[in-house]
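Re: Re: token formats

Sure, here are both.
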Amino acid sequence: QVRRYDRRNVSSSLKAEAWRRFLNAFSEDNPYSSEDENLRDEAQNQIANWKAQQEHQEVEKKKLKQINLSDMINSFNLDIPVLQPDERLLQLIGENREKAEIAANSLIEDLGRKVTFAFAQANSYFLYWKGQISRFSDTREMRQMMRKLDKEKGELQALMRKWGGEAPKDAEIVPETLDGEPVYGLEMLDENGEPLQIYVNPDGVRMRLSNGQFLEKTYQPDEALKRIRQ
């Protein structure tokens, strides 16, 4: 009966479980026959075989997820690498808060605070952004975030082109967070050598000072350049 089930079009895990149940049912040795021993050997071999196939299929699924995630991110103008999850990343997204904090501090120490990357694990997708982790239930949700970031980066690049040669030489588009959300900002020093960050929204250009406070006024691009040079 278990051999017939083994030939059915079912998953490797179900086939392994069927042989495991068979093995449990015939675990006692029959001293008058060697057939039961042969059947147990066959069951052990089949369990090992289907378990190996299941593990191989899971590895291939993970690879496919990574490829799909890379293709999706690469469809935007974003320099966000896709990583294979390791033990540290699994701790970062795990339920143990102490281990997650240790993993987060370790990543910041090794990679710095401006590093961004993405990875897939189980049925979720993750974006590591300036020391923070965002979880997405599917690629549709993550694509929405990538589209938003792509738009922000494009607007900042357009602002730099508009300023042309008058743009501060040290200006750099960097990952930032606003209200806990991943964003892109333009980081630079003003004429007095003070750190300054610029963000573009539909109303114009907003500026954030080194103390984290935003200037109340929203500027047009030319006005923003004059304000930087004050």
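Second one below.
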Amino acid sequence: MTALDTRPLVERITDELRAQVIDGRLKPGSRLRQEEIAAELGVSRTPLREAFRRLQGEGWFANHARQGIVVNEMTIDEITDIAVARMMLEPVSAGLAARVHDDAAAGRLRDMTLAQIDPMDTHAFFDSNRDFHFEISGIGPHAKETDLGRTIRRHWELFSRYRLYYWRSTVHVNRSEAAHLDITAAWLERDSETVERLVARHNWLAIKDQIEVLHPEAELDSQLLAMCEKYGIGV
């Protein structure tokens, strides 16, 4: 945490711990020792406990009777539920946004695509990727707030837990950047059908990566397979 950050202390601690899960410093299943973390962050245990409570409520941490507070591990059922929701909602939302976007949205998307983000700057890269997905889905900060937008953002954030823990190779980065370029081209042309198909495939590859790393022995859910078949995605 930086000394220049003027946000409330609990909020800063919460964001820092969430970031440590995202980039792999706090690994799934690891036990969280309050004394060590308080010393590392230079804070007292009172605001730290409140940050723990918030992150438990968001699903990042869990409280087990014998272990205490641990970094939550996503079960295959949790991953599947979130993945199915993403595959059902995001491609359709992106296709709709492609048809109705205005010049301002087109300009923002062009700027995002052209921005040079260092993939080794994990937090900047994560934020850039999130902003791209929200913009193409028409649910970015400039869009009108809707229940659909809130649902998509919630599922995207849940799915992205631990993403940078396993998504570090240049193969994944290059694949993602290439997909973003293809999606952007179709989106700017208002080709909603192609946008839906490309977004579905892009999301599926991220889902597949996560399942293979966190649950390599798991069988793919029939709903996920049906969504892949709908968009002509080979599995």
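The mean pLDDT is 88. Strands lie at 61-64, 68-71.
- S.
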